[in-house]
Design goal:
Elements: E1 2-6, E2 11-18, E3 21-29, H1 34-49, E4 58-62, H2 68-85, E5 89-92, H3 94-99, E6 108-114, E7 121-127, E8 132-133, E9 138-140, H4 142-148, E10 152-154, H5 160-167, H6 191-196, E11 199-202, H7 208-218, H8 225-232, E12 237-244, E13 247-257, E14 260-268, H9 277-291, E15 296-302, H10 306-314, E16 318-323, E17 333-339
Helix pairs in contact: 1-2
Length: 342
């Protein structure tokens, strides 16, 4: 018997699945109050099914993206229950959970949820025919999503009753189910703190001209707005920017594929280097990738760029190889890797 739980968005739901079917479920729309609603809902589900918690063999819970407090409620409840019952706990991202009812339909489609009041959307692309996720959950504008898929399905929240049967097929791979956060919390620091604290966030379409200028000022053949737009439209491609008082001082662009990521470029405005912006970017990137469950981060750096190599050494990167004559000027490239703990 499986218990499915979701509290990621403006709803709370739970369902019991046993012997090939959902035997009881509950669903309630709510913007707040998930912590107060979840326990009684799970209790009612067991009563409706005439079942007891000790009959469970696994629990599945949505782990985000979603509201910061909401997804924490579901995760905490599910972890505590799984630990007490000594049964497997499985995590499923909220976009896959919402996409399950459309699995089996032909063609590709995008599943999207509004990311609070940011004007952006959490989204992922799916192949309905094979019931697979093509790119991991990320954050983008609706215009950017429509460039990837002409079929976009907007959902308010996943429903445990709908993804419970799918969750039965998921492997017991996740020893520690952690929240999947794609944007910083809504809480803002005080003005005095903002004066000296840089902020790392996911880049949006409106940032592309600024980061194109930064790249062009850093490299002889800098990327144009068109180059960056094309690069960031690739599956798994994302950029983070470091911002202070509304001004972007640097960015890092990377690509995520099957649990591993590679940095393609990182640069900071020339007059503001050695002021910790690159360090903030790297720490923000590593934290972001760990939240995504990433296990390795790769990069390449010129062999004669000793300052950069020392910087990466201090961040825990290890040399993994050498690419001779890799750069246009004939310089060798040192490949480096950092092992991450999701």
């Amino acid at each position: 018997m499986l218990l499915a739980i979701d509290t990621c968005f403006d709803a709370c739901s739970a369902a019991l699945h046993d012997d090939g079917q959902v035997v009881a479920s509950g669903y309630e729309n709510m913007k707040r109050g998930h912590a107060e609603a979840l326990g009684p809902m799970v209790q009612r589900v067991f009563l409706d099914a005439g079942a007891k918690p000790d009959q469970l063999t696994r629990i599945v819970v949505t782990r985000g993206p979603g509201t910061f407090t909401g997804l924490r409620v579901g995760l905490s409840f599910a972890k505590g229950m799984a630990l007490a019952l000594e049964i497997p706990l499985v995590g499923i991202d909220s976009l896959t959970a919402a996409a399950v009812p459309y699995f089996g339909e032909p063609g590709e489609f995008a599943m999207a949820h509004k990311a609070g009041g940011t004007g952006l959307y959490y989204w992922a692309l799916f192949d309905g025919a094979t019931s697979t996720q093509i790119n991991p959950p990320s954050l983008a504008s609706m215009d950017e999503i429509l460039q990837q898929s002409k079929f976009v399905k907007l959902e308010n929240a996943p429903c445990a009753e709908h993804f419970a049967a799918y969750a039965v097929t998921l492997p017991d791979l996740m020893q520690s189910v952690e929240p999947l956060y794609l944007r910083p919390p809504d809480a803002r620091p005080s003005v005095s703190a903002m004066v000296s604290t840089a902020h790392v966030r996911i880049a949006t379409a409106t940032d592309i001209p600024a980061i194109a200028d930064i790249h062009a000022s850093s490299f002889a053949k800098g990327w144009t707005v068109a180059d960056l737009t094309s690069t960031l439209s690739l599956p798994g491609s994302t950029a983070l920017v470091v911002e202070l008082m509304g001004t972007i001082y640097g960015f890092v662009q990377f690509q995520w594929v099957k649990g591993e990521a590679e940095i393609h470029t990182i640069c900071v405005l020339a007059n503001y280097r050695r002021q910790h912006f690159a360090r903030d970017l790297m720490h923000g990137l590593i934290s972001h990738l760990q939240d995504m469950g990433t296990t390795r981060l790769f990069l390449e750096v010129a062999e004669n760029n000793h300052a950069a190599r020392g910087f990466y050494d201090r961040l825990g990167f290890a040399t993994s190889g050498l690419r001779r004559g890799y750069y246009a000027d004939g310089q060798n490239a040192v490949t480096m890797v950092k092992e991450l703990t999701p």
